[in-house]
Specification:
The complex is a heterodimer of chains A (204) and B (204). Chain A is 32% helix and 24% strand. Chain A has seven helices and eight strands. Chain B is 40% helix and 17% strand. The longest helix of chain B has 19 residues. About 13% of the residues of chain B have low confidence. Classes of the chains: A alpha/beta (204), B alpha+beta (204). The interface between A and B is medium-sized, with 16 and 26 residues.
Amino acid sequence: MIDIQAPIFGISRLRIPIDGEGVTTLVTFSHCPLKCIYCLNPQCEEEQYAQHLTPQELLDKVMVDNLYFLATGGGICFGGGEPCLQSRFIEEFRKIIDPNWKLTIETSISVPEEHILRLIPIMDQWIIDVKDMHPDIYLNYTKRPIDPLLHNLQILADQGLQDRCTLRIPLIPEYNTPELQTESQKILEEKGFKHFDVFKYKRL
Amino acid sequence: MKYGKKVCQSLKVVRKQIADANEIPYEITECPHQGDCPGTCPKCESELRYIENQLNIRRAVGKAISLVGLSLSISSAFATNGEAMTIPQDSITNQTDKEDVLMGIVEQQPAFRGGETALMEFIKNNLRFPEELQETYRQERVILSFNIEKDGSITDIEVMRSPHDAMSNEAIRVVKLMPKWQPGKLRGKATRTKYVLPISFRLK
């Protein structure tokens, strides 16, 4: 196996039914290319919270719920931070787990396309945090351009993976409106996406 | 009911389903854990390890294990249970819709009169190995689910897993022969409960 490690700042067991079907364990990776104002996990950029694990070390930690995963059709949900940046780690992890475990990724897909192409064959479900499909709003809110998101959405659409994707479109206070949310959904429906999670961000 | 306690109760049902499907003795009991429930506790963890060890023993002696996909309905059952536990008792017991069945989340489990030994004896005395399958099958298992109504009668028998229709029909025939059960109880009152029963066919 390739000797690879990833910075992981959280492992949360026994989540039902938050991250897909069945019992899941959420594994959150450090670091994110976006700088969202309402980021849920700002600690993902603070190195002192991370532990650096190999795929085998992560497997040893999550294996405790193997029976639950197999019986309920659950598995691991990768979040963050931006989990797609750890595509090589996830690829190695997939090789050593039970093939019946389901893998879900909760991602902005605002990453270089090589990561998306690597993950497509091994990911069962994608939960994509689209945020907003209007370039200026996206830039204002995330401080990053929308181009990687659009490019990678197109890759997923071209491969006919719309059924495996749930797209999150939040109402972001002071950044978009319910009308703009609806517009974003329509743009995505035109690309063949069908599953949406439309909700409102709250300030904590 | 708080989220952690709901997770705990759902996982108990999963453990029970795994145990029943593999003929591992296991009964659902209350946790002694005090304070907020995070979804698991030392008692729950030790029960999970016990079932895991029992499965390993069965594997070691070459027995087939039933595990993958046994509890696929956990996510929908989770939502159903949450509602059922918060609505008035009369609303629960007066409902007849399938969605309102309590998936094992009861204070007292339903029981075959005379207990588990009497149940096994009843099945053994009535179950016939289908004649037409005697050349092709030797030892198989059918898993049925059904509801125990509040008067102890059995309804809505469904085949969850079966190698052959003839075995499904025979297993259903035997369940239909059963006398009324002692119903499950919630807050001291009889309530409708779902039950999963593995039935083993062995050619003598």
